[in-house]
């Protein structure tokens, strides 16, 4: 079976698991089980990124964007900036320095990798459009993830907001950090983008699995607006899959948006 079909079939299985089987409040609250699940869902995108960029650069990017969210999340728990006041419930693994579960290093990065993949293919690789699109996509993803995580009891907000108990400042924080991480990612792969090469679709595999799982869970729990956003994002991923994987996306002006040079004619 083609690898893309394997991922799509697995996403369907994850959706059904979230819809039918997952119950939080019992054995699913085991930190070891939750941590293993978080790590396992991250691995497909990690492997795809390393295959695209090579071991050295791929692993360095994975390390950078694993550590940065830990630092930012720890600062946010301690100060309330940039996401607002919240605390973890202790079901996602042992907290580092008493602030953030170590699994955050694996939980956020697949969301970012999926966002940069979609942004590079749907908005282009020119810096401004890429950063803006990535920031918007990360916020859209959090419109799905945060209601599910709060409902499952993974973290608690000090001052709940109108959107399923989530304050508006949280989404502003996601836009800010999403833009920052996108700018750093753009700098790290600037040579690939300058050559007209978008992020491979396989790098978004983990995001597809995560969205499928939580959309199923949210549907069963009756949180319909996050379900709609989750299905819309899945639709964007599927739309990207239907496009010619070898065709460069629309790009803006500037050297990073220059088209790839034409191929030389083949001799018979």
Number of domains: 1
| Helical content (DSSP H or I, runs of 4+) | 55-70%
Strand order, biggest sheet? 1-4
**Class by helix and strand content?**
mainly alpha
- The total of helices stands at 10
Kindly describe this structure.
The protein starts with a helix and ends in a 26-residue tail after the last helix. Helix 1 (3-21) packs parallel to helix 9 (205-221) and helix 2 runs parallel beside helix 5. The protein has helices spanning 3-21, 31-53, 55-79, 104-107, 109-122, 127-152, 168-188, 190-194, 205-221, 224-242; strands spanning 86-88, 95-96, 100-101, 155-157. Strand 2 and strand 3 (100-101) form a beta hairpin. It has a two-stranded antiparallel ribbon with strand order 1-4. Strands 2-3 form a two-stranded antiparallel sheet. It has one domain. 44% of the residues are buried. With 268 residues, the chain is mostly helical. The protein contains ten helices and four strands, in the order αααβββαααβαααα.
Features:
single chain, 268 residues, mainly alpha, two-stranded antiparallel ribbon, 4 strands, 65% helix, 4% strand, globular, disordered C terminus
């Amino acid at each position: 079976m083609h690898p893309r079909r394997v991922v799509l079939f697995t996403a369907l299985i994850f959706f059904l698991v979230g819809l039918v089987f997952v119950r939080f409040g019992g054995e699913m609250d085991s930190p070891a089980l939750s941590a293993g699940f978080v790590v396992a869902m991250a691995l497909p995108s990690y492997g795809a990124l390393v295959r695209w960029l090579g071991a050295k650069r791929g692993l360095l990017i994975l390390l950078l964007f694993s550590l940065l969210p830990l630092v930012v999340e720890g600062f946010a728990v301690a100060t309330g900036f940039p996401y607002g006041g919240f605390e973890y419930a202790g079901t996602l693994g042992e907290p580092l320095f008493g602030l953030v579960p170590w699994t955050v290093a694996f939980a956020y990065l697949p969301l970012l990798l999926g966002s940069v993949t979609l942004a590079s293919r749907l908005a282009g690789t020119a810096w401004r459009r890429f950063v803006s699109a990535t920031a918007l996509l990360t916020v859209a993803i959090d419109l799905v993830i945060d209601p599910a995580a709060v409902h499952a009891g993974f973290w608690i907000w000090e001052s709940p907001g109108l959107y399923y108990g989530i304050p508006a400042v949280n989404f502003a924080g996601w836009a800010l950090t999403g833009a920052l991480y996108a700018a750093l990612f753009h700098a790290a792969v600037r040579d690939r983008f300058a050559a007209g090469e978008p992020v491979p679709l396989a790098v978004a595999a983990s995001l597809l699995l995560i969205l499928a799982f939580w959309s199923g869970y949210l549907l069963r729990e009756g949180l319909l607006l996050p379900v709609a956003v989750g299905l819309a994002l899945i639709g964007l991923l599927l739309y990207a899959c239907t496009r010619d994987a070898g065709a460069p996306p629309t790009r803006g002006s500037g050297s990073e948006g220059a088209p790839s040079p034409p191929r030389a004619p083949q001799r018979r």
